[in-house]
Automatic annotation (TrEMBL):
Residues 10-136 form the NACHT-NTPase and P-loop NTPases N-terminal domain. It holds the Pfam family SesA. InterPro entries: SesA. It comes from the Eukaryota. This is NACHT-NTPase and P-loop NTPases N-terminal domain-containing protein.
Length: 230
């Protein structure tokens, strides 16, 4: 593992961050943009600053050193989180997405990324990015030059944790519920598929394997419709 490979990963992460900044500028004025998106966007310059600084400090890294391999894995994780953020921001910034519910578009991207409502939130992805950058600032090759940035990362992580707790960009799901069973329609109306059982009790709708939020539209079992008519 050489410094050149580390340099390449950092360069790729910088390119993603630069694109993210442009995408953020394109969506930051949307009235329906969750506050968490704004908080994430404000942190992108810090991400870029740390990566740019690290890019110029890779020459001293030793080839095939275990510590360098761990650094490469950490940077790969950082790149992965930035890539996921990029896909979310890009989809929301598309022209046709502006005519749709932001939450609906957001949720669909998360499903495609095979993430759940918690790990796929933009604030969670940014925190994961900052976790990786915090480890980067502690590496022997970078720590002396990044003391100020390390302090900023720690403070920023605390701020994002508060955002995640008080203003999550997506709602929590009940334990054991998969994100792909939750639909956010443009008129806040959900259509639930039939599960193994349907219980209507005490004014609550419980359908096996699904979480229902907002107005519900429930129909008969398809077999009943075919057999008995409307």
């Amino acid at each position: 593992m050489s410094g050149i490979k580390i340099f390449g990963v950092i360069t790729g992460a910088i390119a993603l961050t630069e694109t993210l900044l442009k995408l953020y500028k394109a969506i930051e004025t949307r009235n329906d943009l969750p506050e968490a998106f704004l908080e994430v966007g404000k942190r992108l310059p810090l991400v870029e600053e740390i990566l740019e600084l690290a890019k110029g400090l890779t020459d001293g890294l030793e080839e095939e050193h275990q510590e360098t391999q761990a650094l490469k894995q950490n940077l790969d994780d950082c790149h992965s989180k930035l890539s996921q953020l990029h896909k979310i921001f890009r989809q929301i910034s598309k022209g046709d997405a502006k005519e749709k519910s932001l939450v609906d578009v957001y949720q669909k991207v998360i499903r495609k990324l095979k993430l759940d409502n918690k790990s796929g939130r933009v604030e969670a992805l940014m925190k994961g990015t900052l976790d990786s950058l915090q480890l980067l600032t502690m590496h022997r090759a970078f720590k002396d030059a990044m003391k100020t940035q390390a302090a900023h990362v720690s403070q920023t992580k605390e701020e994002l944790e508060k955002v995640a707790e008080e203003m999550p960009s997506l709602p929590d799901l009940p334990e054991g519920t998969r994100g792909d069973n939750v639909n956010y329609g443009e008129i806040n109306r959900q259509f639930a598929n039939w599960g193994e059982q349907t219980n209507i009790e005490g004014g609550q709708w419980n359908i096996a394997g699904a979480y229902i939020h907002g107005d519900q539209v429930l129909g008969r079992n398809p077999q009943e419709r075919r057999g008995n008519g409307p």
